[in-house]
Design brief:
There is one protein chain. The protein has one helix and five strands. It is mostly beta strands and about 80 residues long. It has one domain. Strand 1 and strand 2 form a beta hairpin. The protein is about 15% helix and about 35% strand. It has a three-stranded antiparallel sheet with strand order 2-1-5, covered by helices on one side. Bound molecules: zinc ion. Zinc ion binds next to loops.
Length: about 80
Amino acid sequence: MPHDWEEFDDVITAGTCCPTPDCGALAVAYRATDGVEHDDAEPWEFTCPRCGMEFAVPEDELVLQSVPKDWLLAKVHAA
Ligand SMILES: [Zn+2]
């Protein structure tokens, strides 16, 4: 995973569980809010850190939404 996004000051993050059977790892996605236009109805796209599954989740079905980046990364790294 590239880490270029850590350079952004204004990043919103979202998390959800991997849909792959027997995986269920916490996948994380992010969006920069700094001058980036996006459609709120657009699904968030995730890549599972464990099995590599790529999937999309509508914003209203996210497990974690718009949480502080540092907090979420801490949770992921502790998993
Ligand atoms: Zn997975």
